[in-house]
Design a protein that fits this description.
alpha+beta; three-stranded antiparallel β-sheet; three-stranded mixed β-sheet; 10 helices
């Protein structure tokens, strides 16, 4: 199999973006990857990550899944995903562990709003969602609402208000989960008081 076909196979098997290590594992030397870039056959997405040159640019969702696999879609981006906000965020709101290396978040191609979360709370409410055909980790509705209280100072007042009202009117809400998360995230008093007002009109 020629080098170009082998490189294409690696990239296709990885969903459109492959790492240097993926090529090495397939028997393609680093120097060959560089020469394929120089020949205009591959594009470098960022250091150590490549895609086919002729393919349309990888979507932001694909880049997020590949470049920041630890990231969990949260707050503003999660609100938009659940239909609790009609404002499409200009940046991806992503929760990452506090221990993550900052260099891993240095992704020029992807606008990020990063939330650093302590390890014991990082996976709380984690689920997955379909983002334009790409499966990404995302916090569930209840964790997202609790995060609105936790990061209240970072949120626009109108966004905060609309999100809470939308959640209160959501027939699929789970108030039991909301209560459990609110306690763990230390926003129980604020969250439950306001929810009671919204739910009881």
């Amino acid at each position: 199999m020629d080098l170009r076909a082998a490189a294409r196979d690696v990239i296709e098997s990885k969903g459109g973006i492959a790492k240097s290590a993926d090529f090495v594992a397939a028997g393609i030397r680093a120097v060959d990857v560089v020469s394929l870039c120089n020949a205009g056959y591959l594009d470098r997405v960022r250091h150590g990550y490549y895609q086919m040159a002729e393919q349309n640019e990888a979507t932001e969702e694909q880049m997020l899944a590949t470049l920041i696999p630890q990231g969990i879609v949260c707050v503003e981006s999660a609100l938009f995903h659940y239909g609790y906000s009609d404002f499409a965020p200009r940046k991806w709101s992503v929760a990452v562990p506090r221990t993550i290396s900052r260099t891993k978040l240095d992704v020029d191609a992807l606008p990020l709003q990063t939330y650093f979360v302590q390890q014991d709370l990082y996976e709380l409410g984690k689920t997955t969602g379909n983002f334009h055909g790409t499966t990404l980790p995302v916090y569930d509705k209840e964790r997202t609402i609790c995060d609105c209280f936790k990061y209240r100072s970072r949120l626009d007042t109108e966004l905060f208000s609309k999100a809470l009202n939308a959640y209160a009117n959501d027939p699929q809400k789970n108030l039991n989960h909301l209560s459990i998360y609110a306690k763990k995230l230390r926003v129980y008093k604020k969250a439950i008081e306001l929810m009671e007002v919204l739910l009881n009109g």
